[in-house]
Amino acid sequence: SKKITKICCIGAGYVGGPTMSVIAQKCPNIKVTVVDLNQARIDAWNDPDTNNIPVYEPGLPEVVAEARGRNLFFSTKVDEAIAEAEMIFISVNTPTKTYGTGKGMAADLKYIELCARQIARVSTTDKIIVEKSTLPVRTAEAVKSILQNTGNGVQFQILSNPEFLAEGTAIEDLHAPDRILIGGDPTEEGQEALNALVDVYANWVPRERILTTNLWSSELSKLTANAFLAQRVSSINALSELCEHTGADISEVARSIGTDSRIGPKFLNASVGFGGSCFQKDILNLVYIARSYGLQQVADYWEQVIIMNDHQKRRFGNKIIKTLYNTVSGKKIAFLGWAFKKDTNDTRESPAIFVADDLLNEEANVSVYDPKVSEKQILGDLNYLHTRTESKNSELITIFDNAYDCCKGAHAIAIMTEWDEFKTYDWEKIYTNMTKPAFVFDGRNVVDRKKLLEIGFKVYTIGK
Ligand code: NAD
Ligand code: UDX
């Protein structure tokens, strides 16, 4: 198959940035150019100090430092990069639609279509187009239709290569993936393109871990994988509520079922709910697709995963309000963590946003500390909900740069993210400075419950 020497990736976000950095690191003979319309983002990727790159991921600064300027480049010159590449990854955002048909459910494919049209306009040589973004099944058909109607004789092959990295462990996941999935056309040209991409990954991924399928299976497998993972979280969260009513302990239940090799131990941590840019968006999309084929039961089945997650987030806020004698008005509630999981600065769909919003509706004063999320981001997340005016949000929320000040004088602490540092705090000191009785609501089962009870805290842990 054709040897690839130049790759372009459109979209320098949480997926495009780390993924291409690792390809460049592992394939020093391939020139990799990551392009984006967002000048500030590209400037940050080019910051001489790789600790200032826009995506916080353990291990990523080192990878960027190794490859950047050698065979890894970040640029806003989209046309130029498209023109010279033999293989183009599309890694732009595919958010839930906020308007029109499918509003609140379907994936918004306008950025994908814009990329396809731009590629069609700029290309003068044959290219392999790789869908890296998560897309509804059969999107490749639309991309193909746009690319094949340019009339300039340029040949395009479309591949689907969904990304399975999880944030916070992106580099580990990219260095040693469980599998790489590549979907392509069964035609001779399709298989040749597919093999060209297999060869890229084979530079560091064992061949038996590189799965190949047809385009539609690959597209649908990505939505399916996220639906299954999210379903496990909603399942364990559903049972966490039953535990609280029966004296069973969700950690013990999780351990008991997780040792069954058919179930497996991972992804069974009860929590304040799943967040992140993917799970909700992809399940809503799956539900929308099933409904569009008239498959009502299939749609309802998967929609329940979201309904359960919304319930779990709301239930946590209600628990705080109820426990604080049914009123939090004027009380200080300290949030430890704002990111949707540890080891990332990403806050998209973070449960903290929704729990904070509920508490603000009750006129609580919410103080927030997160080791990696900025004040601007936290306020932006709340303002984006449009629940109240921006000035009201700024009045009710205070952001701190350390946990001890954040918790000073608080009536309650709500642990929203499982950052490791929360485990090693001086909890005696935090207790001393709080309003009594001092409550801790552990939404992640992260702190030592027994120790906190001994200190004098009133502790609520999900599922206990
Ligand atoms: P992101 O929002 O972080 O990055 C997308 C980038 O694309 C943005 O910087 C945006 O400016 C840029 N962009 C949009 N349109 C463009 C255009 N026409 N030309 C140039 N640049 C353009 O998104 P992300 O989290 O990296 O996700 C990208 C895709 O990967 C989505 O489809 C998502 O579902 C999928 N995905 C995400 C994850 C994850 O963990 N975040 C994991 C697997 C798959
Ligand atoms: C997910 C998929 O795991 C990944 O394969 C895909 O490429 C993108 O979407 P991500 O959203 O980055 O990755 O993180 P993930 O580790 O899956 O966590 C998602 C959410 O579920 C987080 O809010 C996390 O805290 C929560 N979660 C996860 C739980 O509440 N309990 C668990 O046991 C596992």
From TrEMBL:
Pfam family of the protein (one): UDPG_MGDP_dh_N
Recorded superkingdom: Bacteria
InterPro entries named in the record: 6-PGluconate_DH-like_C_sf, NAD(P)-bd_dom_sf, UDP-Glc/GDP-Man, UDP-Glc/GDP-Man_DH_C, UDP-Glc/GDP-Man_DH_C_sf, UDP-Glc/GDP-Man_DH_dimer, UDP-Glc/GDP-Man_DH_N, UDPglc_DH_euk
Segments forming domain UDP-glucose/GDP-mannose dehydrogenase C-terminal: 334-449
Keyword Cell cycle among record annotations: no
Top EC class for this record: oxidoreductase
One MF term in the entry's GO annotations: NAD binding
UniProt keyword Oxidoreductase, yes or no: yes
Enzyme active site: C278
Binding site for NAD(+): 11-16, 36, 41, 92-96, 133-134, 167, 278-281, 348
Swiss-Prot/TrEMBL keywords: NAD, Oxidoreductase
Ranges annotated as spanning the membrane: none
Family from the record: Belongs to the UDP-glucose/GDP-mannose dehydrogenase family.
Name of this chain's protein: UDP-glucose 6-dehydrogenase
Species of the source: Mucilaginibacter gilvus
